[in-house]
Design a protein that fits this description.
By secondary structure, the protein is of the alpha+beta class. It has helices at 4-7, 33-43, 49-53, 71-76, 106-113, 139-150, 169-187, 222-227; strands at 21-27, 56-57, 60-61, 83-88, 93-98, 118-124, 155-161, 191-196, 241-249, 261-269, 271-272, 277-281, 286-293, 302-303, 307-312, 323-326, 335-345, 356-361, 364-377, 384-385, 395-407, 419-424, 430-436. The longest helix is centred in the middle third of the chain and has 19 residues, at 169-187.
């Protein structure tokens, strides 16, 4: 486990914790994800009394209803879509998403995890053979953990829930912790901490358990851990890349020293400042940056992760979906029509070679043909099995050919340049999340 972060005092983490932490809860069905978020909201005093009164059931507060907002969720007692809530403590602000645990809603979990700084994976102790030192984890716990690794979520915290409901909480925590650590080592999942909790009773969530050294655990509470986690660092060390989202035309101007359009979007990697040479993809033309505006239209240089408006020194054919890139002599940002990628398959229809999909990269759409399925990842053994197709919610490695070249980097280097979405050309459903290898 990564104990470095947990050992650092809060006052030394001011830079890391200045921005709000985006985190999600995930895990198997009925592991207590919605209840945990409800407990965090209630015990951190982030819920108004009239809201609490609206989630009373038989005289008791149903914490899960604080996030399960859809009528179907309340009727069935399950989470279907991702629900986001906001709360803050004296140390920092949080944006927390409650991801569904059902296998059929894995696509919703992938959506939430793609932009998360951290994840809390809930593990229900009552569903496991906790008396067995060689116990097996639930498939969905493994699947969600693997997806967190693939999506490069920097901090993963395992929260072992419902330990108040087992006869020997100390043994259960020790055995489940050992199983989680062994799985994480084999799968390469970065584990920041493993903490025992009772979301229903509130033990070790915001406040420590009333029982001294409950489960033999002497570490910080879950909230104390979350307050110390860093946000995802912006990709400022890579060459400049910028996906054009919106083109704004100036009113008539007699100034001929620059173009008459502002290209708005978010800087994906690197940074941009006036005088910088850029290359436009896909047409390959070059130009010089004449002016850079920040999100409130103040002229200044802008780094990765922030919105910007860019004015070039001359009129160039640029439209929504095009990329502005650094003139890179190292060849880091070169376009390619052939891509090898890991895919989390989200469609109800099986993925087979030869199918054509729309691929979305930044704001650019291109046709993509599945050339080959290399292997399928077995979430139980972590083996890479030969496969000719991928079923819904499977994870595998594929090769595809694009109709037009795209500038990509391995996802391990860049979340922004290394991720694509596959969309069905007929139904327009999101079919797969691609991570470039």
């Amino acid at each position: 486990m990564n104990t470095t972060i947990l050992d650092r005092p809060l006052e030394t983490l001011a830079q890391d914790t200045r921005a709000a932490l985006r985190l999600i809860t995930c895990g198997s069905v009925d592991d207590g994800k919605s209840t945990l978020i409800g407990r965090l909201l209630v015990d951190s005093k982030a819920v108004l009394q009239d809201h609490l009164a609206g989630v009373q059931r038989h005289g008791e507060t149903d914490l899960a209803l604080l996030t399960d907002g859809l009528s179907a969720e309340r009727e069935q007692g399950i989470t279907i879509d991702v629900a986001y809530r906001y709360f803050s403590t004296e140390a920092r602000k949080f944006i927390i998403g409650d991801a569904p645990g059902h296998e059929q809603y894995t696509r919703n979990m992938v959506t939430a995890a793609s932009s998360a700084d951290a994840a809390v994976v809930l593990v229900d102790a009552t569903k496991l053979a906790w008396q067995d030192a060689e116990l097996a984890l639930l498939p969905q716990t493994r699947r969600h953990s693997l997806l967190l690794k693939l999506l490069r979520v920097p901090s993963v915290v395992f929260a072992i829930n419902k330990l108040d409901a087992v006869s020997d909480s100390t043994t259960a925590f020790a055995h489940i912790s050992a199983a989680l650590e062994q799985f994480a080592r084999q799968a390469g999942v970065p584990v920041t901490a493993i903490v025992p909790i009772s979301a229903l009773k509130g033990w070790n969530v915001v406040d420590a358990s009333a029982q001294a050294q409950w489960c033999g655990y002497e570490g910080p509470t879950l909230l104390e851990i979350l307050e110390r986690l860093p946000v995802t660092a912006a990709e400022t060390t890579l060459p400049f890349a910028f996906a054009v989202q919106w083109v704004e035309k100036f009113s008539s101007s007699s100034d001929t020293s620059q173009g008459r359009r502002v290209f708005w979007g978010r800087v994906a990697t690197g940074g941009v400042q006036p005088g910088q040479q850029v290359r436009i993809m896909p047409n390959g033309q070059t130009a010089t940056v004449a002016q850079v505006l920040n999100h409130v239209r103040t002229p200044q240089a802008v780094l990765a992760g922030h919105s910007a408006g860019i004015v070039l020194d001359r009129e160039v054919d640029v439209s929504r979906g095009d990329w502005l890139l650094a003139v890179d002599e190292t060849g880091t940002l070169n376009g390619s029509r052939d891509i090898q990628a890991t895919v989390a398959w989200l469609d109800d229809e099986t993925l087979v070679p030869g199918r054509v999909y729309w691929a979305l990269h930044g704001h650019r759409w291109v046709k993509a043909k599945i050339k080959r399925i290399v292997h399928r990842l077995d979430i139980h053994t972590l083996a890479e099995d030969n496969a000719t197709q991928l079923e819904p919610n499977a994870i595998g490695h594929i090769e595809l050919t694009l109709q037009e070249p795209l500038v990509t980097l391995p996802f391990a280097q860049s979340r922004a340049l290394g991720s694509l979405v596959l969309v069905d050309t007929a139904s327009h459903k999101t079919s797969g999340a691609l991570l470039v290898n």
